[in-house]
Amino acid sequence: MKNLICNIISASIGILLVVSFSACEKSLDVSPDPSFGLDPAEAIKSSEDMQKLLNSCYDACANMMNGQFQVISDLLADDVTSPLNNDGNTTAIFNRSVAQFNGATNSAYSQPYFTIYRVNVMDLYYDQVAFAQGEKERLQGEAAFLRALCHFETVKLWAQPAGFTPDNSHLGIIERTRAKNEVVLRSSVASNYSLIVADLQKAISLLPISNGVFANRNAAKALLAKVYFTMGNYDAALPLLNEVIGAGYTLSDSLNRFNRAEVESEIIFGFVTTNSAYDINTRGSGFKGSYRNDINIPTIGLSAELYNLLSSDTTDRRSKFVGLINAGQVNEIKVSTKFNLNNFATPYLTLTDMLLMRAEIFAIQSNSGAAILDLGLIVKRAYGETSTKYVSLSALNGQALIDEIRLQRRIEMHLEGDRLTQLKRIGAFHSTSTTIRNAPWNCPGMVLQFPASAGTVQGFIFNPEGGCN
Amino acid sequence: MRTILLLIFIFLLNLGSQAQTIKGKLTDSKSEPLIGATVIVEGTKSGAQTDLNGDYVISGLNAGKYRLRFQYVGMKNEFKNIELTAGQNLVLNLSLKVDENQLDEAVVVGYGTQTKREITSSISKIGQKEFNDLPVQSFEQALQGKLAGVSVTQGSGLAGSPSIVRIRGISSISAGGDPLYVIDGIPMTQDYGAFGNAGGANFNPLATINPNDIESIEVLKDAAATAIYGSRGANGVILITTKRAGKGKTRITYNAQMGFSTPSARPRLVGRDELLNLMEEAWINDGNTGKPDFNKFGINNMTWDEARNNNTDWYNELTQVGVKHQHDLTLSKGWDKLSLYSSFSYNKNETFIRGNSYDKISGRINLDYQISKKLKMQVGTSFTHADNIRVNSGWSGGYGLLMSSALPFYPVRNPDGTYFLFNNSDAGFRTNPVMMRDLFKWVTNEQRTIANMAFDYSITDNLKVRVQGNYDYQNISDDQFLPQELTRTMGSDTASIGVKNFRYTNNYNYLAQLSYEYKINKLNKLDFVGGFERQQALTQGFNIVERNASGFLTNGRKTDNNLKLYIVPSEWKFERFFGRINFNSRYKYFLNFAFSYDGSSRFGDNNRYGFFPSVSAGWLMNEERFLENFRQLSLLKLRASYGRSGNSDFDPNARFGFFQANSAITYNGNPTLYPTQLENPNLRWETSWTFNTGLDFAFFNNKISGTFDFYDKRTTDVIMNLNLDPSVGFGNYYDNVGAIRNYGAEFSLRANLIRKSKFSWSIMANIARNFNEITSTGAYTEEAVSGGTNDTRVVVGSPVGTYYLVRFSHVDPATGRPVYLDKEGNQTFTWSANNRVPVGSILPKAVGGFTNNFKYKNWDLSLLFVYQIGGNIYDASAKRQLGVMSFWNSRPEIADRWRQPGDVAAFPRLTLDASTYGLPDYWQYNTPMWLHDASFLRLRNLTVGYNLPEKWAKKAKMSSTRIAFICTNLFVLTSYPGLDPEIARDGEGNINTSRNMQSQGTYYLNAPQERTYNFQLMATF
User: Fold this and answer.
1) A with B: how many residue pairs have Cβ under 8 Å apart?
2) What is the ipTM of this complex?
3) By the CB < 8 Å criterion, does B825 face chain A?
4) Closest CA to B165 of B144, B135, B185
């Protein structure tokens, strides 16, 4: 027994000796290589870091609006054909039968929340970082603007529009206001728009008047006007439109809306591009992949209705944007040349848009004269000052005037994702019998389905599907 | 000394009574004395040990009847009933027989060995003989069907395709489900996702191990066996011991195998004319008139009229008879103090897919040197160089296109000799597979060395210390070259492109271990093992893309012409204390306690260490007196164990949150900074508590023997790479969620049915039934984790890898449209994801195998059958082949389709429009229509061998020579209508999750396994 005890002691000493050379509390620490990423606790230490984080918000937002959202929106509406490549995902969008496993819409759904999360991360650091005078307010304002933009674009596609129910109590989207992995379920559309409006009002109060190519006070006002317009709250939209339109922007003579240099004077806010390989690959890639037709066959063509609208009047300068591939053959494809570019600067808030919104509000409010003045600027640019079209505008009033404004909007902003929003607004507030490609504006399939992964948490309610065909 | 004192004590107790003695000599079958054998007078405290001459003496017994037990390690116990009369001096000499039950065979148990007698846990062993006859690409394939509870699903016929090995079901979701492989003491690097699933295949980290170097494989299955591996043992441990030389003369062995590879099955597809008829029928069904417009099918490089000009047999274009040959040369030699084992192996392994092969050169040296009486050194090192000449497969093209978009009316080449381009816009299916194979050069080469050095020092006879260091180095270079001719046609670039993806892993561990044997008395002893181990591994690498390359990139240098990006290094560290105590009483009662106290860098400070204990006991019942009359019983041993083990095999960086500062990603030229990963500082060990009880038995002098085990394993804190609600801002997040239960039974049987001098017949059979159930997913729904491609989900109350599909009812005779069932069972024409329910599982109900060995004179015949009962295969290819018509080929089953009102058919009307089937798109046709019973019986191996008579061999100066003809996969019986019921699909996305939840049963354009015919020559000099 004595030997046993001695041996155990020897063994223990031996092990301890080995261990003491080998192990210590920190011996298992590993620091991931900085090339992989920065520790969150170390990542943001200065206002420069905050600016970089904000830059990434713009980048993520630009990726979302590189055509992805716009193409999805137009596939649901009536300006395009069924995808030419028989692609399952985009065909499902066109058929208004998007289900939980649609790769195209699922990818799109995650995009706005990248920006929103980053904006919410910024909230964690405002009190921990030193800023130059006014810098903090600018950052907060831009962040609020971008969060509002992302929530706004999302609610338009994944929820029935404002006006679908009288009090907008129908289900909207998930609102994210904190950078936290927590369970949040869908709010009502009323709540969604309240948040969007609040964010934009905050942005208006914080943003400077001028801010280079980034969001400024006018951009926030313009977006808020657009939000109110979409909500059918024309009274709230009008004063904001007046302020923005009166802020010194001018219509450019160029109609190349994606060439920022040519249309700079009318851009209130848009996504910019440079000649970097990254920008050429990403900015506008959603548009290019679907519509570009000068170097390959596009995957989506123009609907006959839109083609005819664009091409029927050759005095319309915008008719230059249409073309035909395999003209006259069985496999003829109608295309828009608007997207035959390498480098895209996607406009988001433009004077054209503001003028057309104000014109429609004026027309709805029976202020035909004011409406024609705004509409006239657009028509004059397209057809010329001496054109019959322009000259005859003064004869328009009532519903005919409203229809003309909406027609000009459709032509002017074709394939920019605007058409669906307008048709739903019209259906919700003006003509409940509105149909979109023979389907009611409010049929379930007109709203995108959420990805299955949204249902990872208990209690999430998916959208109803189908019902449009 | 203690024996003498005991005898004196007994003598004093019996003072006054008359003295009787029993004495004698114990010998073995060759009349050699057995030294240290034990003689026990049962029911008394009397006994003796034999001396150097094998003699024993027992005295001090009273007159009367006694039962004596004679026992010696490796020998069968003998029992004698005697009657001592007063004053008698009985002489009892005995020759003990070798214990054919091999109860005292050494078994590697992790950080030591035990005899089979002592083992209290569930361990299975397979020896080198089992490997010799199996022409396997990777050693784990040879385990299939041979060990109860070890499920091996072999990979596809693609070179380097990894198997899926599961021990007693699956208890992990996003942590690795594979067992821990330990080769000569080092836990191996085993990353199946080194290059994701490029080309439709994962990486097989086990392929570089040379099966010919393996002496034995022990599979540790229950917690008592694996607890000493602590946090890494939850999925079982596979211990690989390589060969070492014994003492004796030089021994040289040459083993050659030459053979051919053919596919085990050929895809069944419709021919050109039938396909065109089907397309036309769909066109008309959809209300169209005139000739079908191929554009509507997604075919835009050919017109309907041109289609009848070609009729290509893509099967012949893409397959071949592969040639295989393997040569193994081993040398072993033992001197007084030094022994040497060395081997060299060359393996050329073409598959039946043209352009695809796996070539390997490997070598090993194992040295044992007795430095002094107390100090011994062991050194072992191996080196392997493997070239996997690759082609695309599965979803990625190549052989996969044969079953999808390589249509019979497509020509291989245009009339001008250029390659015909399929040119549909579905990127994965646009490339002519012959063009791709001819022009795209791709090789993955791996170099690996596994080395170890150990010193064993005997401090005393009973106390020993071992210090061991191990090193596992692996570098993998994946080289691709796309010439201009290819890049131009693919439209991705106009320049030639060279790609080099390089990874290398340094994995090393060292351990210090003490073992102590304490003999309490003749019949009771304790064994202690304790130690400390540390392991760390670092994987690094880079990816280079170079435009205008002239061929493979020969080095990894950054130049002005290339883009070189370093990969994120992956580093982990691991350390632990471990210990084991075995108590052996009377050679029939055994108690074992083991533990491991583990720390891992994968966890934060708050959860860094975990404690993994186990307790187990064994009772050799046949040595009890109450069974002595059961003469037929050779062995009866009862075992039970309970313990905890863990799993930490997941992304080493999972617990960290990260921000990325990326100069390449800018906005308006300004730098960006953004979060890329959500942190979870509270990640902790995935742990399993396992109860196991087993019975080992043998009858009729060991003619029939077997083992039965029952186990119940409950796993909690299951690590899941959760699909996050996208609104969180991230796609995935690792967390400990939910629980899984596995319970089941295993049975294995070995029977020597006939054992004559000229003829023998033996059978080995095993079966394992496992029940698997996810018992909780915490606060999450079925969508928390998906097995990939919309097929399997985590469903509480159902097994891991449950198919979650919308039920199909029938084809409506009136309209020809498919009718589905909603969740309540109501019929509907609309497919909706909301109506998905659990309908099947990738996991089989039971797996096993049986082997028949026949010997007649010098001839032998061996047949290995493997089988699976239950489980499901989801044929995801069929939803396109038998679904909405497009640019895919179809299968003959489509003949049973609806054509006109009133038809009762298996498949609905043909259409180009997914909405006709109520589908959102043609990819969503996920229904049990494509779900099949995965049961099969397969003749895995047939070997006919002939051992040359000894005198012939001697004439050729050989000690033995054997020739054999070996066939694999000769046939399979199954109701599965696809190619091969054994599926190990490439894991996609999160490789662990995919391999655990999908790969084993979800089929998608995979190549079948190969059927091989081999000739073997084995000569020993």
Assistant:
1) 273
2) 0.92
3) no
4) B144
Would you kindly state where each structural domain of chain A is located, as residue ranges? 45-273+346-441
Q: Does residue B817 sit at the A interface (CB-CB below 8 Å)?
A: no
Query: Is the CB of B668 less than 8 angstroms away from the CB of A213?
Result: yes
**Residues B719, B737: Cα–Cα separation, whole Å:** 6
Q: Which amino acid is at B535?
A: Q
Q: Do B783 and A33 touch (CB under 8 A)?
A: no
CATH classification code of A45-273+346-441: 1.25.40.390
Mean pLDDT of chain A: 92
Distance CA A15, CA A19 (A): 6
Q: Which positions in chain A touch B610 (Cβ < 8 Å)?
A: none
Q: How far is B772 from chain A (nearest CA, A)?
A: 22
Residue A22 has which token pair?
């080998």
B919 interface with A at CB cutoff 8 Å: yes
> What is the nearest CA distance from A133 to chain B, expressed in angstroms?
21
d(CA B378, CA B367): 6
Which backbone phi and psi does B546 adopt, to 5 degrees? -125, 125
- Predicted confidence band at B99 (pLDDT cuts at 50, 70, 90)? low
> Is B914 in contact with A22 (Cβ distance < 8 A)?
no
* B876 touches A: beta carbon within 8 Å: no
Band the pLDDT of B137: cuts 50, 70, 90: confident
pLDDT of residue A24: 54
Based on the number of CB atoms within 10 Å of its own CB, is B30 exposed (0-12), middle (13-18) or buried (19 or more)?
A: exposed
Q: Do A4 and B460 touch (CB under 8 A)?
A: no
Is the pLDDT reported for residue B11 higher than 60?
no
Question: Do the beta carbons of residue B579 and residue B516 sit within 8 Å?
Answer: no
This prediction's pTM: 0.87
B757 touches chain A (CB under 8 A): no
Q: Which residue in B532, B830, B831 is closest to A15 by CB distance?
A: B532
- B730 CB neighbours in chain A (<8 A) are 117, 181
Rounded CA-CA distance A372/B713 in Å is 78
Residue A101 CA to residue A98 CA, distance in Å, equals 8
User: Helix, strand, coil proportions of chain B in percent (round to 5)?
Assistant: 15, 45, 40
Confidence of residue A3 (pLDDT cuts 50, 70, 90): low
Query: CB–CB of B833 and A278 under 8 A?
Result: no
Domains and CATH numbers, chain B: 2-95 (2.60.40.10)
Picking from A109, A181, A278, the nearest residue to B724 by CB comes out as A181
Q: Do A62 and B922 touch (CB under 8 A)?
A: no
Tell which residue, B790, B833, B730, has the closest CA to residue B994: B790
Whether the pLDDT of residue B462 is over 80: the answer is yes
Q: Which of B176, B179, B169 is nearest to B193 (CA)?
A: B176
User: Mean of the per-residue pLDDT values for chain B?
Assistant: 89
Q: How far apart are CA A448 and CA A71, in angstroms?
A: 13
The answer on pLDDT for A326 being more than 90 is no
d(CA B419, CA B431): 10
Q: Which residues contact A422 (CB under 8 A, 6 or more apart)?
A: A406, A409, A410
Q: How many CA atoms lie within 13 A of B486 on its CB side?
A: 19
Out of A95, A101, A214, closest to residue B833 by CB: A101
**Confidence check: pLDDT of B472 > 60:** yes
pLDDT of B17: 44
Q: In sequence order, which residues have a C-beta less than 8 Å from that of residue B721 and are 6 or more positions away?
A: B173, B174, B650, B651, B654, B732, B733, B734, B785, B990, B992, B993
pLDDT one-digit tens code per residue, B744-784: 999 999 999 998 889 999 999 999 999 999 999 998 999 88
Residues of A in contact with B779 (CB under 8 A): 183, 457-458
Q: What is the pLDDT of residues B613-656, one digit of tens each?
A: 999 999 999 878 788 778 788 889 999 999 999 898 888 889 98
